Amino acid sequence: MDRFLGTALLEKDLVFYCVRKRYYAILGAMLGALFLAFVIHVVSFGDLASATETIRQFGFSFFAYQAALLFLLGPFFSANAFISEKERNCLGLLYLTSMGKVGIVVGKFLSRFILLELFAAACLPMAVACLFIGGISPREIFILFILVSLMNLLACALGTLLSLVLYRTLVAAMVTYIVLAFLFAGFDLKQGTAFWQGSQWNLWINPINAFNQMNIDRTFTEYWKPMIGVPVASLMLLLVSYIILPYYFGEGLSSVKRGLLWLQEKTARKYRRAEGVWDDPIYWKYSRGFLGQTGVVIFVFLISAIVYVGLLYLIGGRTSLLGDKKSFFDEIVLLSLSLYGVFLLTTLLASTVLAGEKENGTLPLLLVTPITGRQFIIGKVKGIIRTSGPVALLPIIHVIILAVRHDPQFKKPVIPFGYAVLFILLAVIAYFFFLGQGLYISLRQDSARRATMISLVVIVIENIFFFLFPGLNPILLTTGLQKFSIHMEQSGSNDWLGPGSILAIPFLCLEVLVLCLFYFESVKWFNTFIDRGD
Amino acid sequence: MIETKNLTKVFKNITAVKNLNISIDEGDIYGFIGPNGAGKTTTIKMLATLMRPTSGTAFLGGHNINGESRQVRRLIGYMPDFFGVYEDMKVSEYLEFFAAAYRIRGPARRRIVKDVLALTDLEYKRNELVQALSRGMQQRLGLARVLIHDPKVLLLDEPASGLDPRARIEIRELLKELQRMGKTILISSHILSELGEMCNSIGIIEQGKLVFSGDLETVMEEVRGKGLLFIRVDGDCTEAADAICNHRFVTKAEVTENGELFVQVSSKAPNLSFVSEALVEMGFPILAMKEEEVDLEDVFMRLTKGVVS
Ligand SMILES: Nc1ncnc2c1ncn2[C@@H]1O[C@H](COP(=O)(O)OP(=O)(O)OP(=O)(O)O)[C@@H](O)[C@H]1O
Ligand SMILES: [Mg+2]
Q1: Centroid of ligand 1 to alpha carbon of B42 (angstroms)
Q2: Termini Cα distance of chain B
Q3: B271 lines ligand 1 (CB under 6 A)
Q4: DSSP E strands: which ranges in B112-223?
Q5: Of A279, A369, A530, the CB nearest to B52
Q6: Counting atoms of ligand 1 from 1, which one is nearest the CA of B309?
Q7: Do the Cβ atoms of B48 and B155 come closer than 8 Å?
Q8: For residue range B189-232, what is the model confidence (pLDDT) as tens digits?
Q9: pTM of the prediction?
Q10: Is the C-beta atom of B189 inside 6 A of ligand 1?
């Protein structure tokens, strides 16, 4: 039994998680945020007659929040499964023990899955509290919980596999996010050609879809599909991990690495020829590795996006996430979601910039060179923009096309072009805000892993904050992401000129201010760096 | 060239470096030795302006490390004890990157990279990935990086760790060559024998306090001055030991494992010749006599207490 469960590994990893304060911090942030949502809901009861309806709505959005948060955490936890061992040169040692291949894969996978399930379960009491007020049945809560767990399952299995193939946690996590995002977004082909009609294949591996159907239709017609499809898919992913594990020690996986390096080499050659790039060695260094690991992220994103968008338009399907509603807002919800994903990527990328350099021990080498703080930070920022910028551009361009070409149906008459301009402006400011925030976290942390963890905590908190107060979030404000907000139907906050947007203006100014602060802090920090030894 | 004035560094609960006063002349190779945790790395970090002293200061080429860090940094080549490498870079790119960071542009950069690669015998690895280098080769790469901007002062924290004997000798020669070029080198190391061969002055530090600093020859003399003799006598060694033991200039006399007479002479004795005279007088003809050889290791063992902090 031990052999097949990888008990030793499981214990080691779980104990490791349990003694780390930061996991409690993440859990705390999550619980706190969900609790806040709960309180706000309870307080906002009109009369008791509408209470049950509110609670029902809350029950569903509660799980939607939880799913969103776990979606954020899952890939990240699972993506370091093997990479953390590789980084410490311990994978070989594990392989030599009597644990066996199955044990290693299952142990790694289970430890992540159990952790996420604990996170999910910790939020359960609050969901159950809804039962006492009514409006939602135990059966519904049970099914919602199962669907959230299924999502965890898929995230962990995919993350574990990618962790084995790739070499950097952040990259593996990002690729997992991207693949999952496209899988979950999915599309049902109800409106497609006769051949495709009604296939709805992605329901099988898309718990979110089932979740959404449940929310929209208030029925349980589709939930059973992912309950079969997801475990099967996860099992297959684990099987692949099991099969390729031995190749890590042979030549097999190193050819993946060689391939990446070859790509990198191709781009580097261009740089070596151009003399000008040497004026900014920091940027050179960053963009040199551009097509290496980071390139994988962009590659996967672009491929997924092309396949996705291509199929969507060719077949005339719609994103199933949106059901049958058809408006401009609905169209761009997904796009702004992916834009939001890019922002998260930016924060995570930026958070490793300085921390990674510190962890590597290369920071002192750079500090004693004549490179100034400004040069260093700007070089890094340019590198990050180059990495995540193109990805950010995709949804932005899409929004513009949508705004200008389609005749968007706003609830209030607005000028589409003006809308697009506003959207871009806000997107750019938000982008830099997220970048600056990552940079600042990076400055305060000593290891890349810690820095990304802290970023995740901050992002979770911010996310909740933004979902709770959509009026304060410029991006959510413009894109109608408020659909996900708990206030959606009551306040009809889809109107973009409402009081929410007035509130957003000082918030926007604040964001710009904080952004400047981040920048100057980082530069100052680099210039006056002193190893205080604490 | 390097001068520290009451340099002190206090961490939360320990004093890593305490009132350190050393002075290194231009063109010196200064060996900085001490047991683990003595404060060598801390001192070097402070000299490299990467750590602010709690009190006291130091001057490098006349520039104060507190306040003139930019000038100091231009002067130094710093090699940390543990230094990172950018693993996915090639050897030549790694060096070119740092050359560019030191604002070396154009053809000069390529030439310099070529030169330092030749100097550190890494030419044949120039297109290899840094992560594919062995530990010792990475160490050499670190040394190559230090030399890239032709610094006047080299601060090397254990540069020889991980090197094979041949490479060590080569590095020793390289450092001597650099010394001839007029560079001042501060080198910390645990491998005393090799420091002994290239340094002209040393500093010994223990628990943050300087035990000795100065000329290598002087300290050798000092330790040698204690007068330890190994004597082979014709006759019973034990008797000879008992006899000589009472001499007023002898502090200790005993028989060693291989049947030799070991005599420790007190520092008050004018010279060592009285031992042989006395022994002959007492009827123990001398077959052989040799003074104990002193090397840096003995100096180190003699001057430090072996307290690892
Ligand atoms: N960042 C730090 N925080 C707290 N204490 C430190 C820190 N760095 C060093 N110390 C302490 O200062 C003392 C001196 O450390 P240092 O690294 O200078 O020793 P060292 O002489 O270089 O030793 P080694 O030969 O092992 O490299 C040690 O007791 C160490 O524990
Ligand atoms: Mg040290």
Answers
A1: 6
A2: 30
A3: no
A4: 153-157, 184-188, 201-206, 209-215
A5: A530
A6: 29
A7: yes
A8: 877 777 777 888 888 888 888 887 878 777 776 666 566 777 88
A9: 0.74
A10: no
Residue with tokens 């530069």: A523
Q: Can you read off the two tokens belonging to residue A432?
A: 């830099």
Distances (CA, A) of A333 to A340, A477, A480, B133, B140: 10, 11, 7, 49, 55
Sort residue B148 into left (φ over 0), alpha (ψ -120 to 50) or beta.
Answer: alpha
pLDDT at B175: 87
Torsion A293-A297-A300-A302 (CA) sign: negative
Closest Cα to atom 8, ligand 1: which residue? A533
Residue B245 contacts residue B253 (beta carbons within 8 Å): yes
Q: In what order do the strands lie in the sheet with B153-157?
A: B76-79, B153-157, B184-188, B29-33, B201-206, B209-215
Residue A281 CA to residue B103 CA, distance in Å, equals: 9
Q: What's the pLDDT score for residue A289?
A: 61
Q: Where are the domains of chain A?
A: 325-534
| C-alpha span between A513 and A511 (Å, rounded) | 5
Question: What is the C-alpha separation between A427 and A340, in angstroms, rounded?
Answer: 9
As beta bridge partners, residue A318 has A188
CA angle (B245, B249, B253) in 5-degree steps: 30
Q: Name the residue with higher pLDDT: A529 or B206.
A: B206
Distance from CA of A169 to the nearest CA of B (A): 16
> Hey, what domains does chain B have and what are their CATH numbers?
2-220 (3.40.50.300), 225-293 (3.30.70.100)
Burial class of residue B267 (count of CB atoms within 10 Å of its CB; 0-12, 13-18, 19+): exposed
Contact B53, B66 (CB under 8 A): yes
For chain A, the distance separating the N- and C-terminal CA atoms, rounded to the nearest angstrom, is 45
HEC profile for A513-527? HHHHHHHHHHHHHHH
Concatenate the DSSP letters of all residues of A434-497 into one string: HHHHHHHHHHH-SSHHHHHHHHHHHHHHHHHHHHH-GGG-HHHHHHTGGGGSTTIIIIITT-TT
For the CA atoms of B296, B299, B302, B308, the dihedral, rounded to the nearest 10 degrees, stands at -60
